[in-house]
Here is the input.
Amino acid sequence: MRRGPAFALVGGACLLVASTLVERPAVHAGTAIPAGFAEPPLPPLARIARAEAAPEERAPSTPLPVAGLDLAHIALGDGVPTATARAGRAQLTLEADLQQTAAALMRGRHLPEAAVVLMNVASGRLLVYASHVEGGPDRDLCVEATAPSASVFKIVTAAALIEDAHLGPDTRQCYLGGEQRIGALDLVDDPQRDKWCTTLAGAMGRSINAVFARLAKEHLTPEQLDAMARRFGYGQSLPFDVPVQPSAIHVPNDPLEFARTAAGFWNSTLSPIGAAEISAIVARGGESIRPRIVDKIVDGSGAVVWAAPDTPSSSRAIASDAAEKIATMMRHTVSDGTSWRAFHDPRGGAFLPGVTVAGKTGTLTDGQSHRYYTWFTGFAPSQPEPGIEQVAVAVLVVNGPTWQIKANALARDVLRAYFASRGLKGITRPSYGGRRAGGFDRRTRRR
Here is the structure.
């Protein structure tokens, strides 16, 4: 991914033109995308990455026996996912069929670049960890934090508005503009000019930039937003079985730039596994959990030289009531927001009947290389239900000039494969190219 450009965001969508990103509104049924226009150049991402991380307070990122783990070359063998490590062969937590499904969906759509992470919310065990680069060298995109957070950062801003400003999902805000850029006038309340009003929950679901920008400018300080971002893992290494590039964060003091950052326009980056952790924090009622992919390490003789602890490490990131309110807001993304079309057929039928999904989208366009980046992160079911293991999902997709599939549609198909594998009634496995995705020939190891 190209480094250096500035970012602008609209309704979860932004456009990178030459050295500048410009916002595009989220696409809804029957809504045209107006032409974008450039923002003034902002500091490059390289300057964001220089922001110093907070003192490390979490457990060491990589257990010593897991050192040297190569997740860019995961082997399924006889259906047991493994990878090489310095101390031996690592047996992974991944589910072979789901891993194969995610890989098939990305490969079948010929996506230039994509990554999928699916995590068991209760245990932190990863069920899918798939990275795809079409026709290129193997790379572990799941741990690369080079993509802008875009509108996914609205989850962080919402948490700060709830905990620090004591706002809630029903907080109402009127607005006008902010679809393609946030200017000084977009931050001014004017009853004569503001023609639309919505709640904070509605603004989350439809990714309305002006609402988040105004509320942040009115109720938050840069210090509060920066502190909340770090509680979600920004600016520090995520504890995991391989090193994770820290998600960068830089919160400006200038009021206008601060408001733009709070809306998700720029000044932060995110990795797919970091995005999954953000959703897991919300799903777990505010507790962070250490994601893990290694069950055990075995040597050449088959002896176990290391096994993962039964109890995953966790710590509180945000208050439980704040997490509950954020989950309520994220449900609007799928129920009536930017992902309604991805999760429903043309007649309005749900692709995941009986399963509620909470999520957040983000989109950007690189006008120079004609590459299109989309995010989806969330969790399902959106509330714990007896007999159903809750999962967090994060998907980053890079397309060429012709769209293949966006992140929210790929996330939907991964969730369909997961819940179908659990036997939930009415949920069918996804397909691509006229064939059912997932399920591989265990004799030939091929489709």
Q: What stands out?
A: The chain has one domain: 13-436. The two ends are 30 Å apart (CA to CA). The chain has eleven helices and 19 strands. The mean pLDDT is 83.
